[in-house]
Amino acid sequence: MKWLSAGLTFVNVTTICGCLEGIAAHGLNKTVAASSAIAGFVAALIAYWGTSDSSEDEVEEVAVDGVTPVPAPVSVEGQTPQRDSIFDQARRRYKSIWLWAVIAVFAMFAFRSFCNVYFIDGNEYKIQNPNNLGDLSLHVTYIKTFASGVAMWPENPIYVFSKLRYPAGIDLFNAILLCLDISVVRGLVLVGLGASAALCYALFRWGGAFTIAGFLFNGGIVGWQWFRNYEWKDFQSSNYIAWKSLALTMLVTQRGLSPTLAGFSLAAGGGTWALGSWVQSRPGSEPHRQRLTVLGMVLAAAAVAAAPSVLVASVPVWTVAVAWGFGCFGMGLVISSTSVLLLQLSAPEEAGANSAALQISDGLSNVLLLAAGGAAFAALGGGGVAHAATTADGSSHPAAFAAVFLPMAAVALAGAWVATRLHERPA
Questions:
Q1: pTM check: above 0.90
Q2: Based on the domain organization, do 114 and 198 belong to the same domain?
Q3: Residues 131, 244: contact at Cβ < 8 Å?
């Protein structure tokens, strides 16, 4: 854990020092960046020497693997056969062929994801995954804004008349690298690969090789199409991968709308989601938070159930736009209220564990439901319409959409029932 602790400390201290010194100097410059990096390096050395990787840690690691060591008196040489055996067992953890196999696959994932995350192809700038186009352009804008020497804390470069409120810590770190003459592209690659290495090791220390494999393959094997033709391709030029909004795809392929018109039909959901979030945050809503959560889940369930109604030709297309707006309003009520209620109803000593359990439940349910819904969608012919979403060729697979929306509506309705139980236990 020494290298992991040192690396994280370097990034954290460099970023914090860069922020504080940038505020004092009214902006980043090479001097501020260099002094911040030096401070981060010194802190990393302290963290490295201060992080314990002693025999107690090794004993704990082996015990986690099912071996409970028996304390024994320490001999003159400082080691005993029992303790030597413990060290041997701990070292054998790193000799597993399966561990190095998943590490190799993880390395493929990391190099594929970050070495081409943002690259130049002829006269064009490209990114590997077009679904990250909005996110990556946002982060590049923040990086260049910080590195330009703008007075800290800056105005938002995206929205006028507002301060930057985005959690842009890693962008500030990349801006410090840019001030040190490390280009944006190289900085993104270095940070991405370093973070991948840290994540891989943290996953291993948490749950072993199986946890690394679970992280890699929880979305299936679509990202490993390299094994089909041994060609490294960005996702823009592939014809076998598609990430689509099912509601958008349904309107385009089943009702013949253009992608633009279909997108506008669903755009109101963003506004109603924000409205729902604003409503639940009002002080007058606090006594009714549990009821608002139930209402939000009911609205979400009704919206998801109503969405496939447009598969019937006689149903107006605007029906799904209205339903989507109400459903997003419900989600705005639910998302923040769930976290607030969890903290309110948890004992102080249980709040952290309960919050972590909520996050794990959220991630696990996303993986399971997406996998189940995707499998049902593909099995009923949905894969054939995924790429038709930009052509509106009239591909008709209504059962594929219904098989996703209706079960998910049932899940949301079950969530509404669970929300009725969000109250304190009787004494």
A1: no
A2: yes
A3: no
